[in-house]
Amino acid sequence: MRYLYTLAMFLATPLLVLRLLARGVRSRPYHRRWPERFGFFDPPGFIGSLWVHAVSVGEVNAAEPLIKALRRDYPNAPLVITTVTPTGTARVHQLFGDSVFHVYLPYDLPFAVGRFLKRIRPRLALIVETEIWPNLYFACRRRGIPLMIVNARLSERSLRGYKPLRGLARSALRCVRVIAAQSRTDAARYRLLGADPQQILVTGNMKFDMPIPDGAVAKGAVMRSHWGPRRPVWMAASTHEGEELAVLEAHLQVLHRLPDALLLLAPRHPERFRVVEQAVRSLGFTVATHSSDDVPSPSHQVFVIDAMGQLMPFFAATEVAFVGGSLVPIGGHNVLEPAALSVPVLVGPHTFNFEEITHSLIQQGGAERVADADRLGPDVLKLLLDAAKRARMGQAAQQVFERERGAVQRIMRLIDTALQE
Fold first, then answer.
1. Residues with catalytic annotation?
2. Which residues pair with 263 in a beta bridge?
3. Which spans in 82-145 are helix H?
4. CA angle, corner 339, sides to 333 and 341, nearest 5?
């Protein structure tokens, strides 16, 4: 099965190269780094690195407290961070600068994987959340590199997607030393995929351990004083195509009752910043953007946050947060950022990527589910008009966040054991 998989990867290589070239047209930095996808990069010249793989910006954010713990406990060990997407790369540089060595993860081709491992020479490999690459996993086992999947998550849809390759996935998972699952549900799905139950531990979700950036609350207070401390403000974060129109229609309903209300709109992907801004202007809203105006003024109705990794101060300044990727079947995004700041959370019907966290927040009263796009406006308005309910929901959300912390400490104990052997 693995030989057939590898053959398919080789046959797909010309298409992968074309895709890289096409993306390079839109992003010159991305174009310059595409050889890394085949393991071609200057060797950093160290041995015994600790390697963390985080696919994109969400996984990088989740891994932030773990990476900081590794830097604290193993200050002399070189740290290698790999990502797959340009947004993940940008987030790594934003959080850690030159203190870590970043490179794109190579495609799962034997020669590329071998070249990559030979250059970074890892002492330990940590895969964040859900990334099963058979050739990479087998290569780590052959080289005696302990491999762990941390903050392991497996949605029902991903489990179905692996079904045609279940035998191959099972063989790959047997190369893994420990699967540190976010929840009992994730652990059960890994068992169904073929992982040895002895490999699996439930350690919780590292995202509960994310730090609140220094000064985020103070920055939020400053922004509120700038645009008007008594203005009703709500935020739509990490939105996708198909959601912004619903959000803007909801804001029209809010403005009908609360004419001075402000919407903070944060699209998920940078390549859509300009498109979303143009859509807002075309609908007649008075609009400002983070890149041009820094913060909105009292006259602006919509503020487009066209920046990556800048959401926490805005969450601190808002009264209600809708977390996107949930009105469309993307699976939702991180609801913990507003929860950590005691902000009531709204989500749509599609939250399978964060089902355990979302369920916990809803069950404890810190979040509510919006049935569909038509209900977003009324549900936002109801919360903006009810300060007492907002306070109850915000307190409940923050309590859930605090109660679930500690996953990084549990994972670090597993890492310590692996490195001491």
1. 59
2. 234, 302
3. 86-96, 110-120, 134-142
4. 125
**In 3D, which of 203, 202, 189 has the Cα closest to residue 132?**
189
Helix (H, G, I), strand (E, B) or coil at 339: helix
Give yes or no for a contact between 351 and 331, defined as CB atoms under 8 angstroms apart: yes
Nearest to residue 341, comparing CAs of 395, 261, 381, 389?
395
240, 341, 372 from 284: Cα distances, Å: 21, 32, 24
Asked if the model's pLDDT at residue 295 lies above 90, the reply is no
Nearest to 63, CA basis, from 39, 88, 85, 84:
88
CA distance 7 to 212: 46
In tens, the pLDDT along 161-219 reads: 888 888 999 999 999 999 999 999 999 999 999 999 999 999 999 989 988 888 999 99
Between CA 240 and CA 379 the distance in angstroms is 20
The answer to whether 237 and 321 have CB atoms below 8 angstroms apart is: yes
Q: Quick one: which of 317, 322, 343, 318 has its CA closest to 332?
A: 322
- Structure pTM? 0.82
Most confident of 8-12, 221-225, 351-355: 221-225
H/E segment holding residue 81: strand 79-83
Tokens of 269: 């992907």
